[in-house]
Amino acid sequence: MTAGLKKNGTFLLNSLWTKEEVPNHLPDNVKKYFAKNNIRLYIINATEIAEEIGLGNRTNTILQSAFFKISNVIPYDQAVDQMKKFIVKSYGRKGEDVVKMNYSAVDRGGDVEEVEIPKEWADIQVVAETPDDAPEFIRKVVRTVNAQRGYSLPVSAFSGREDGTWEQGTTKYEKRGVAVNVPVWKPESCIQCNQCAYVCPHATIRPFVLDEDEQKGLDEDVDILKAQGKQFAGMGFRVQVDVLDCLGCGNCADVCPGKKGEKALEMVPILTQYENQKNWDYMVNNVSSKAHLVDVKLNVKNSQFAKPLFEFSGACSGCGETPYIKLITQLYGDRMMIANATGCSSIYGASAPATPYTKNEEGKGPAWANSLFEDNAEFGYGFVIAHTSMRNHIQDLMQKALQSDAFTDEQKGLFGRWIEFKNDTDESKKRQKR
User: Fold this and answer.
1) Where are the beta strands (DSSP E) in 22-162?
2) Percent helix, strand and coil across the chain, each to the nearest 5
3) What single string gives the DSSP state of each residue in 243-268?
4) Lowest mean pLDDT among 61-65, 327-331, 410-414
5) Quick check: 195 and 208 in contact, CB under 8 A?
6) What is the sign, positive or negative, of the torsion defined by CA atoms of 31, 33, 36, 42?
7) How far is CA 307 from the centre of its chain?
8) Are strands 10-14 and 205-210 parallel, antiparallel or unpaired?
9) Domain boundary among 355, 370, 385
């Protein structure tokens, strides 16, 4: 956050907290930097202002006005005048109400408050972060790049990755907590349709089915419903939200049919839900998948019991593309190869160091690559040709083995059945396990 912030500089923070509360939430290293470099800190709750004046989550104009207020790049009155002229030019055709809302945004941008920087912050002893159980690649490479310190990495950090291969599933370690509001589950109104999980762009709300032992690991005040369906007899059901990865789009709450006119999801301030994150952590680490008990290809509800192999991407809040990608990975992700066409799918699919494509409990997941030359059709066709060639080679080897005395009758039987069902996905997967 402080990279590029010079001595005697000014820092503007869009804050949900008051100026009395902000110091309690600033990291010690940031406090120390502010104090040692004579930084002036200003805050404004642009998020709340935008909601008040009808702009939803659009804070840009408010923050732009605030920037001119504190920077003195040009006289503030002149900046306001020029911004309002541009608003008329940009939004005049959309009606007077839209123009007035943006005028209000400019005016309210002046509501900045300065936060006093105590001198004693300069003497804070910054304690090193407590190591967690994240893999070494995440701790040493991914987090360094995410902190915008990638240039500090030595070449040796990429030893063994010279071909550009990247670890899968790195996004689950980000936990950005950037949403303003997140959904909270109201079990008394839930019909267990799983539509909320189906439309979620970031795979941050999911249905979990728990057996008796798995339920014992939760606190007594955690709500669990009786799971619907004979295949889930004796099990519990819970819709769980990943508070720190949710982007707060509200798609889940919008689509929720609820019961008797009451929705089972309500958007509430994220500050009230941090405690719920531990339940998500428990679910993903301790509750086994029950997807094998249903036909996940039968309907929407069943599909959402399958683990998404595309999760926590960097797509915009409310993205309309990623729910489809997520669904495809739930149905076919354990054997997917993706020839990506350059566009949004490259940005949310492979913006280093983030990799949202991940693996299932068997270590299988989508393989993703993007051709530099915008020829993804030919690029993907090359995948098909290479894959077909390798499978044909395997078939040739098996056919030779059938004529050999070096293999048992059981092995030959497996070879023969693999050849017979070579192009039948489900049957082929059964043979592969054996």
Assistant:
1) 40-44, 113-115
2) 45, 10, 40
3) TTT-----HHHHH---BTTB-SEEEE
4) 410-414
5) no
6) negative
7) 14
8) unpaired
9) 370
- Write out the two tokens for 202: 């970031």
* Alpha-carbon distances of 362 from 113, 147, 258, 333, 335, rounded to whole Å: 53, 32, 35, 12, 12
Instruction: Give the amino acid at 45.
Output: N
Name which of 166, 154, 164, 180 is nearest 46 in CA terms: 180
Q: Which two tokens stand for residue 122?
A: 């300069």
Percent of the chain residues topping a pLDDT of 90: 85
Nearest Cα residue to 399 out of 384, 418, 381? 418
Whether residue 112 contacts residue 44, with contact meaning beta carbons closer than 8 Å, is answered with yes
Give the pLDDT of residue 130. 76
Q: What are phi and psi of 268, to 5 degrees?
A: -130, 160
Q: Is there a single domain that holds both residue 240 and residue 310?
A: yes
φ and ψ at residue 239, rounded to 5 degrees: -95, 120
Start-end of H helices in 171-311: 195-199, 212-216, 251-255, 277-286, 300-303
DSSP string, 376-387: HHHHHHHHHHHH
Cα separation, 43 vs 111, in Å, equals 9
What is the CB-side half-sphere exposure of residue 330 using CA atoms within 13 A?
28
pLDDT beyond 80 at 131: no
For residue 111, the enclosing domain spans 10-121
DSSP secondary structure letter of residue 211? -
Q: What is the DSSP string of 159-228?
A: TT-TT----S-GGGGT-----SEEEEE-GGG-----HHHHH-TTS-EEEEEE-HHHHHTS-TTS--EEPP
Residue 224, token pair as written in the block: 């669990």
Strand-pairing partners, residue 241, are 205
Kindly state whether residues 225 and 202 are assigned to the same domain.
Answer: yes
Q: Which two tokens stand for residue 38?
A: 């004579």
* pLDDT score recorded for residue 355: 93
* 292-384-414-427 Cα dihedral, nearest 10 degrees: 30
Q: Are residues 357 and 392 in the same domain?
A: no
19/1 Cα distance (integer angstroms) = 18
Q: Which two tokens stand for residue 260?
A: 């008797």
Do 357 and 389 belong together in one domain?
A: no
